[in-house]
Amino acid sequence: MNMRAILLFTGVALLFVGTGIIQSWNVSLTILNMALISAIMALGVNMQWGYAGLFNVGIMGFVALGGLGAVLVSMPPNTEALAAGGLRIVAGLSLGAATVIGAILVFRKAGKWRGWAVAAVLFVGFFAYRAVMDPGVIAVEAVNPASSGNIGGLGLPVILAWPVGGLLAAGAAWIIGKTALGLRSDYLAIATLGIAEIVIAMLKNEDWLARGVKNVIGLPRPVPYEIDLQNSQSFIETVTEFGFDPVTASTITVKLAYAGIFAVVLIGLLWLAQAALASPWGRMMRAIRDNEVSAEAMGKDVTARHLQIFILGSAICGLAGAMMTTLDGQLTPGTYQPLRFTFLIWVMVIVGGSGNNFGSVLGGFLIWWLWVQVEPLGALLMEGITAGMADGTWLKGHLLDSVAHMRLLTMGLILLLVLRFSPRGLLPEK
Amino acid sequence: MDFLNALVALANFVIVPALAYGSQLALGALGVTLIYGILRFSNFAHGDTMAFGTMATILATWAMQSAGISFGVLPTALLALPIGIAATGLLLLGTDRLVYKFYRVKKAKPVIFVIASLGVMFVMNGIVRFIIGVDDQQFADGERFLITARDFRTMTGLEEGLAIKTTQVITVAVAIIVVAILFWFLNKTRTGKSMRAYSDNEDLALLSGINPERVVMYTWLIVGGLATIAGVLYGLDKSFKPFTYFQLLLPIFAAAIVGGLGSPVGAIAGGFVIAFAEVTITYPLKKLLGYLLPDSLAPDGLVQLLSTDYKFAVSFVILIIVLLFRPTGLFKGKSV
Questions:
Q1: Residue B320 near chain A (CB below 8 Å)
Q2: Any CB–CB contact under 8 A between B102 and chain A?
Q3: Which of A198, B166, B189, B291 has CA 20 to 30 A from B123's CA?
Q4: What are chain B's domains?
């Protein structure tokens, strides 16, 4: 950390302190919590882009898979639904997996008719899978559709769900990486764009899994509930002793608890990432990024290394996704927008300084703060512009309604300007 | 009779819609593939370019409608198309000057161009939402159907009806005309030949005195035209919604890659492959099988292979298969 980094981090810290003083500490901590998660996502993307030059535009999909992991681990199991269709679903999924593995095995056995043989295996397997799976899905979705209608989860503590979310994302990343890595760089971008859309489509439609667009709400929390704190005698005594209002104090305590857990994860990951970057492995990665041909000539397996780092980076995004779902306490597939979960993270990495872990973290904090604050600022600006216009005119109403779209424009401009005039970002790689 | 009914049902629900959708995808993929061939990057802003062009055309259409201009049985949007194309062409030339030219002069890596196009996508998306909003816009006017299902039934006496929308016919007709002009331009004119030369071998083209900036300028203008036409046809056929246009990016890329990036013929073939696969796989086959199979074997369920919400999965799976087995695409494109 040099002088520049310290100054910039202090500046961002002042933004949050300023928000706390001018608006309220609740607002500031809400932004901070999501900023911590965004910083972790940016760290994952920076591994892929900064260390290895891999262009991933499917961050949203990995984040959503992490959220699914949180639901599947932490929600209580829905025993009635499991009894109704659980076995069939497990059998159906295994059948589907067996079909794919069978097709791959048939394909490996080279022969004259192998194309047809693979097609036949897939065709039969698909219908068998649907035949076994569909009744199970219908049975599960019929159980209490208004309140559940899904298989529920394992009922384990939600913290355990975070690594599981990472694992789910890593699995998806393995499939993508296996196919698209080793080809030209744009292909990976297009393939990740596709997988993200499919993950979201799956979350929205597979009601048996996580209730689809009906949303899963009320995920267990790793921190106490505000209402419990307000009812606890010892808590009230402690805060009134310091002269705080118990209600405000309870909300702030909960947010601080979240911030504490998230900060521990972030610092741990940052330490690991820095250690990895300084190790021989990190040197090899940078060598591959800077010149693939010579790295290959030195005997490095470029595609395998790329696959490795792509999986690692995606797993971190999945972990962050699980943390985000925990913080929200709900999984709402309808709210996953590529703009918010993919491109915003890219802006963070590029603005912060690609290749520099501290830069990504800084970008995460700064851009998230801007993302939240640009809207009120934009509204203020628009009100200023339209102040002179007569009330009720068409243009005035249109301009005021369009404030919500200012974010897109601002983020796009920030990305383009930084890429053009300061491509190494706020904290350049050494 | 049953066989004829099955054929009509197939035409009504699969062949006609897929032909129209395929033409729209093919025009979109042609734009992507041209940019790839000449400027050598995958343009992520293409979906939003289409949205911008469509928006400009819609605004011009509204202006014409309020001025009392109409195109008879055809949609007014076709008259407004040149205005939309001009606006989009200007926008693309502007973004090239402001954004891409800098990286071209610096000979930046293709992935930097892709990131820049991402930024452009944001800005264009913002502009479109800012001007027209995020809601659905229906702007088709004129005659709705060429043949309605009821007319077809009384005409032929078959049980199944075949409805052909005017917009579907217009889509296919316009696509054929545009593709014919494009291929004539690329193969016969001096500028078109210099574009192909530049795409094949940049250094050799420069040596023989081709002005790269001119080639790039014509490429953007043609791409603007193709994107606007593709977008307007899609909007006429379905409806205009900015977010849908962003999502069209995936099938369009899939079409361009399936055909072979950089190959115009491939882009057209790819567009139809993707469209037919998507429509067939998400269409419930119950009716069709009901006609073809004896009653005892007729299926109970809908026999829909995948629900329509998974249509992206279809393009994606085709994309993955092509990447795995034939990364250069059907018509040998580039795969550097």
A1: yes
A2: yes
A3: A198
A4: 2-325 (1.10.3470)
pLDDT tens profile B14-53: 899 999 999 999 999 999 999 998 888 899 999 999 999 9
* Beta-carbon separation of B323 and A339 below 8 A: no
**Chain A, chain B: beta-carbon pairs less than 8 Å apart:** 127
Q: Show residues of chain B in contact with A184, CB under 8 Å.
A: 110, 335-336
Phi and psi angles of residue A216, each rounded to the nearest 5 degrees, phi first: -100, 125
Q: Does B59 touch chain A (CB under 8 A)?
A: no
Say what the ipTM of the complex is: 0.85
The answer to whether the beta carbons of residues B117 and B49 sit under 8 Å apart is: no
**Chain A CB contacts of B336 below 8 Å:** 184
What distances in angstroms separate CA A323 from CA A273, B148, B272, one per listed residue?
19, 54, 42
Judged by CB atoms closer than 8 Å, whether chains meet at B316 and A338 is answered as: no
Six token digits for residue A23? 């608006």
Interchain pair A190, B319: CB under 8 A: yes
pLDDT in tens, B226-240: 999 999 999 998 889
Q: How far apart are alpha carbons B160 and B14 in whole angstroms?
A: 14
**pLDDT for the residue numbered B335:** 46
**C-alpha span between B56 and B285 (Å, rounded):** 39
The span from the CA of A206 to the CA of B309, in Å, is 11
- Report the residue from A55, A183, A409 with minimal CB separation from B123: A409
3-state SS class at A143: coil
**Shortest Cα–Cα distance, B96 to chain A (Å):** 13
Alpha helix ranges (H) inside A291-356: 292-297, 302-328, 338, 344-352
Q: Which residues make beta-bridge pairs with A330?
A: A217
Chain B segment 210-229 residues within 8 A of A by beta carbon are none
pLDDT by residue (tens digit) across B75-109? 888 889 999 999 999 999 999 999 999 999 998 88
pLDDT-based confidence at residue B336 (cuts at 50, 70, 90): very low
* pTM of the entire predicted model: 0.88
The residue to which tokens 């949050």 are assigned? A16
